[in-house]
Amino acid sequence: MPMNRVHGSKRGKTAIAGVMAAAVAVGGVWFTKGSDGKEHPAAVKLAVLNIEKWEGFASVAYIDRIASPPICTFGFGDTKGCKIGMHITRPEAETLLTVRVERDFYTPMTKCIKDFSTMPVGVQASAIMGAYNYGVSRWCHSTAAQWFAKGQYKKGCEAATAFNRAGGHVVNGLVHRREMGDAQRLGEAELCLSGIQS
User: Fold this and answer.
1) pLDDT tens-digit map of 144-185
2) Over the chain, what HEC string results?
3) pTM over 0.85
4) According to CATH, what is the number of the domain 10-54+89-194?
């Protein structure tokens, strides 16, 4: 259960509406153009926009010492193929993030939950955001995923807030990320609930 009260918000609904408007503009309800010029599921675009805000951008690879264990990181929190000192531009990082989120997170999540791609876009995006931070395998085996698979989205949104620890301790930054975010960034539960609450 969340540590604080979680709920949908106007800014969450606005974020979802913005991505869905872009999706309709390219001729499909579920697809939108990414920074690579290709069409991607709207949930991928929504997740990418929010992951970028939470992860921040690093043009030079560094060791993320908060991660357990510490890991080489670059771009928008990417770790795959990372080598200390490598460089990446912001447009390259945006394209890489979009491609990776669809290929390495969204697609596997559609396999662990049969109806994942038909769930509300905010629910999908919040799940992708969480999986990007703590892994697809952990997400697929989580209580949140079990609730989502049953169509119990509110319970799933709340259950996903449990991933708020690093090194065995609750971390305030992760509490914000999992729950209601902060002044500049949407929290995962906030986005999740914004897609299902009227």
Assistant:
1) 999 999 999 999 999 999 999 987 889 999 999 999 999 999
2) CCCCCCCCCHHHHHHHHHHHHHHHHCCCCCEEECCCCCEEEHHHHHHHHHHHHHHCCEEEEEEECCCCCCEEEEECCECCCCCCCCECCHHHHHHHHHHHHHHHHHHHHHHHCCCHHHCCHHHHHHHHHHHHHHCHHHHHCCHHHHHHHCCCHHHHHHHHHHCCEECCEECHHHHHHHCCCCCCCCCHHHHHHHCCCC
3) yes
4) 1.10.530.40
